[in-house]
Amino acid sequence: MNPPAAVHAIAAARARTLAVLLILASGAIGVIASTQTWLTVTIEDGARDPLPVSGAAALPVLAPLSLTALALGAALAIAGSVLRYVFGALTVVIAVVLGVATGMIAFTAPVSAVVSAVTEATGIAGLDAVADLVTAISTTPWPPIALAACVSLLGAGVLILATAHRWPGAGRKYRTAAEASPQGETSRRTDAIDSWDELSRGQDPTV
After folding, report:
1. C-alpha separations of 142 from 22, 54, 102, 117, 148 in Å
2. What are phi and psi of 181, to 5 degrees?
3. 160 touches 126 (CB < 8 A)
4. Which residues partner with 39 through β-bridges?
5. Tens of pLDDT along 38-95?
6. CB-based contacts of 165, cutoff 8 Å, min separation 6
């Protein structure tokens, strides 16, 4: 391999490693964030303490899509050339969906993100009824952290689509043996036939 080709091969391998690591890290952060408090809600009657709302309650798709990203990252390490682009496109879609939803929560803290938690705590259902009950919603650092993970995931998806055609292929250490096997089998069969012919003529094939 000439020096320029070697440099390109190393760069492609590093791009694949970086993409896989970014996806795995982003997915892991998403899963962790889904278990943490994203919002705190103050109820109108003032008798309750501020109600914590987890990431899973505020954004129900966060954990499933983050787990999907983890699976994509793990599969990407051994994927073929076509699947790389499929996984890259899926990564971009997941990143955009989660990024838009997470950004809305991080920057606007909508009542819709706390409806399920308020309903569970008070028994009052419906967006309008909950909106009348809630007096304040504050955010924790977790929505911005999750949003940063979405940006990282998006970068990984774009990196895959831009560089996947240069990634090294699967190992070929078994190809030589596989290709040689039919010829070797034919050779063994020919030797067996020749030995049988020699025996039929009264000759010793071992001599």
Report:
1. 18, 10, 10, 17, 10
2. -60, -45
3. no
4. 53, 139
5. 999 998 866 578 899 999 999 999 999 999 999 999 998 888 888 999 999 999 999 9
6. 81
The 3 state secondary structure assigned to 153-171 is HHHHHHHHHHHHHHCCCCC
Give yes or no: residues 186 and 165 share one domain: no
Question: Which two tokens mark 54?
Answer: 């987890």
Ramachandran region, residue 42 (left: φ > 0; alpha: ψ -120 to 50; beta: rest) = beta
Tokens of 42: 């103050």
pLDDT tens, position by position, 123-182: 888 999 989 989 999 999 999 999 999 999 999 999 999 988 888 765 444 344 444 445
Are 9 and 73 within one domain? yes
Considering the entire predicted model, what is its pTM?
Answer: 0.76
Tokens of 165: 């055609």
Clarify whether residues 137 and 182 are in a common domain. no
Contact 43, 51 (CB under 8 A): yes
Structural domain count of the chain:
2
